[in-house]
């Protein structure tokens, strides 16, 4: 879940987008990209793996990309490795629809297959590209407005999202939608701003609108209109942000740890979402069949540091919900102990970075002994 920014107004968009993205850097990301339109000309899309610095260098701090309307993104990969191809923005093949997305589309595989049957092809491994092409599909099928196309697509999408979308036929306009992922809009002095988090637009305005769950917004220069899923216009109240920039980064919490504690329900939901298929948990996508799961009798949770403490909590939950016996092991001890590891065990390795040396060594040991393994990490594409 990373960063989204959008701008439409009279000034050059690219430097504003890059500046906004830099204010969201503290959230972490693996790649970044922007799409900018100059009037009704074809949009320019620039993306790069790695730090925002790379994107800034490629675009001469945004000065090389002309246009007063654009969207930008910093990505924290959930579907597909961190790479330039998988970085956002994504677009339909004819660049009719261009979008950035935060969150996870749970039923992306099913939608992808449907779109392939309709003749769509896919360049990236992301769930986002599926959403973009679904919007394009409905836009062309019903020949309606962008709001109609978004509504048709959104009722078919399951999961969480904050989306910022541009349509070829609507220069100078940005459409936004959200469900379970934050998004705010600021309007000031003939210009409109969009962001997934307050710090990105605080420099320009403190007067913001919060888009509600399952609502849409249309941003034009200095104005915004909101819609419900039936396409009816709805009224929203403007709110004033009282926090300073530092407090805004912490969403108003006193410190980051407190913010992270409050984010736990959402983080757990997002993690479980990644293995949900049609409302059921399925580990097929990570190589564990239902048969494999049924044969498991013993679970080892192996981790270090705070991930180990997460494992302790998970132990109680798994024991309460299943008849499995669960042991939590410190990875640094696990790898040196002379333990009898039964083949019908599952080792769950938890690591924020996906690179913790002792946890990786424990993982290799389990694989050598033929024990089934499952990794829970925060970095897609890590070891
Ligand atoms: N699921 C999307 C992806 O993997 C968006 C990730 C994000 O929120 O940055 O590209």
Question: What labels describe this entry?
Answer:
11 helices; 383 residues; seven-stranded antiparallel β-sheet; 21 strands; alpha+beta; Rossmann fold; binds glutamic acid; 2 domains; Glutamine Phosphoribosylpyrophosphate, subunit 1, domain 1; globular; single chain
Textual characterization of the structure:
- The protein has 383 residues and is of the alpha+beta class.
- The protein has two domains: 3-247, Aminohydrolase, N-terminal nucleophile (Ntn) domain (Glutamine Phosphoribosylpyrophosphate, subunit 1, domain 1, 4-Layer Sandwich); 252-377, Rossmann fold, CATH 3.40.50.10490.
- The protein is built from eleven helices and 21 strands.
- It has helices spanning 13-23, 52-58, 108-117, 127-142, 146-154, 245-249, 256-273, 290-295, 305-321, 331-334, 357-368, and strands spanning 3-8, 31-37, 44-49, 69-75, 90-91, 97-105, 159-167, 174-179, 184-188, 191-195, 207-210, 215-220, 223-227, 233-234, 239-240, 276-277, 280-281, 298-303, 325-330, 345-351, 372-377.
- The strands form four sheets. Strands 3-2-4-1-10-9-11-15 form an eight-stranded antiparallel beta sheet, with helices on one face. The protein has a seven-stranded antiparallel beta sheet with strand order 5-6-7-8-12-13-14.
- Strand 13 (223-227) and strand 14 (233-234) form a beta hairpin.
- Helix 3 packs across helix 4 (127-142) and helix 4 packs across helix 5.
- The longest helix has 18 residues, at 256-273.
- The radius of gyration is 22 Å and the shape is globular.
- Glutamic acid binds at residues 1-2, 75-80, 86, 101-104, 126-128.
